[in-house]
Amino acid sequence: MKAAFLIASAVATLFAGAAALAASQEPIQPIAPAKVRNPAMVELGKKLFFEPRLSRSGFISCNSCHNLSMGGSDNLKTSIGHNWQKGPINSPTVLNATLNIAQFWDGRAKDLKEQAGGPIANPGEMAFTHELAVDVLKSIPQYTSEFRQVFPNGKVDMANITQAIAAFEETLVTPNARFDKWLKGDRKALTAQEVRGYQTFKNAGCVACHNGPAVGGNSFQKFGIVEAYKTASTAQGRMAVTGKDADRFNFKVPTLRNVELTYPYFHDGEAATLHQAVDTMARLQLGRTFSDGELNDVVAFLKTLTGEQPNFKLPILPPSSDSTPRPHPFND
């Protein structure tokens, strides 16, 4: 009995090792669950992520454009900002954003902390100022108490505000997708069609840009290599950051994790469906025209990249005090 158990254990270990080796040789790797190092900071950041009083209107929060009930995006071509302004670009998902090489389509923010401060002061987004945002939080006793508990210096300032939001966003990873289970050795996790789709995805060359745990997000690439992409959008990609004409139309490669949830696609949101997005990318980036069968297979594979969505208790935001600056939703 003992010998049989030892043999079974050895065989299981051997198979697990073989599966791990096979996964390590794939261009895509499983996503690891988030490691929460400072729960109090994450909890504060969660409140601030949902806090509409960081906007001039008192209506728009980070979650407005990065809705955690909708794949961390807003499913609009371009987001709606203060006074119903039309945003200039499609809102990227915040899910797995900690794996990105940089933040925003043009990579102008080096990390999540730097990104978090941008929309607050952008007149087309939250339309506030950093000074007013700080004043609002300072006027709310529960917030000042939490900042003292979380940060050694106890300050309510933009450095600590953005650090807390970033700490929360770092937890928004989506592990245990069916494709991850397949990578780890569960060959029943995918259907035959989904496996075919992955093979087509690899063989066609999609993995040259869409690789790593996030299946993208780790490089900047020119949109429209084989064929120019035609769009009404004025976004110039990396050129807006570097000033170099060579960087015109170079955008951060988007993650394909949870891609079935983050429609519409591309920086201008012009691809309404995954089929449309895959067809366009194959033609413009690879010079390939997929058959209907290949398109269906690749789309089926992409849907296996949907992982476990963030699951947490909705934060209850502290009430304003008598001295809290009041919102101005209508430019009054």
Explained architecture:
This protein is mainly α and 332 residues long. The protein has two domains: 39-170, Cytochrome Bc1 Complex, Chain D, domain 2, CATH 1.10.760; 178-305, Cytochrome Bc1 Complex, Chain D, domain 2, CATH 1.10.760.10. The protein has helices at 2-24, 39-49, 62-65, 112-121, 130-138, 141-150, 158-169, 178-183, 192-203, 239-242, 274-286, 292-302, and strands at 220-222, 250-252. The chain is globular, with a radius of gyration of 22 Å. The N and C termini lie far apart (81 Å).
Features:
single chain, 332 residues, mainly alpha, Cytochrome Bc1 Complex, Chain D, domain 2, 2 domains, two-stranded antiparallel sheet, 12 helices, globular
Instruction: Provide the residue-averaged pLDDT.
Output: 94
What pattern of helices and strands is seen along the backbone?
HHHHHHHHHEHEHH
Number of domains: 2
Rg calc? 22 Å
In short:
This protein is 38% helix and 2% strand. The chain is mainly alpha-helical and 332 residues long. The radius of gyration is 22 Å and the shape is globular.
Present the secondary structure layout:
Layout: H1 2-24, H2 39-49, H3 62-65, H4 112-121, H5 130-138, H6 141-150, H7 158-169, H8 178-183, H9 192-203, E1 220-222, H10 239-242, E2 250-252, H11 274-286, H12 292-302
Antiparallel strand pairs: 1-2
Helix pairs in contact: 2-7, 4-7, 9-12, 11-12
